[in-house]
Amino acid sequence: MVVSDPIGDLLTRIRNAQAANHDSLEVPSSKMKLEVLRILLEEGYIKSYELVEATPQNNIKVALKYAQGVGHRRTPVIDTIKRISKPGLRIYVTSDEIPMVKRGLGISIVSTSRGLMTGRSAKRLGIGGEVVATIF
Known about the structure:
Layout: H1 6-19, E1 24-28, H2 31-42, E2 46-52, E3 59-64, E4 66-68, E5 74-76, E6 81-83, E7 92-93, E8 107-112, E9 115-118, H3 119-125, E10 129-135
Antiparallel strand pairs: 1-3, 2-3, 4-5, 6-10, 7-10, 8-9, 8-10
């Protein structure tokens, strides 16, 4: 299946899997997806991810993270996950314009000249780039 926006597809699959209360999901692999998942893991939004060797394309298995809710309900750690810069409309910002998500409670993922990083890291380094997504 050909996808025109692989990062948007990854974020939508995560959103849908959490809405269905799944423990994990599999997505086709790419370097950009691995970097986005690395950031989500470092920031504590997912449990883990691993590369699964397959033919014709490798997959990534993502273990989702839930918080214990009221009673026996599980609530997803990710409340909202949103794609900002899309293939049809790229959003570039300077280091001063990097969005603060929920007054610092969430993160923004920024693609910079030094690779993918959180908005907080890019702001600290004084570099801007393309705002890929926001998560809170």
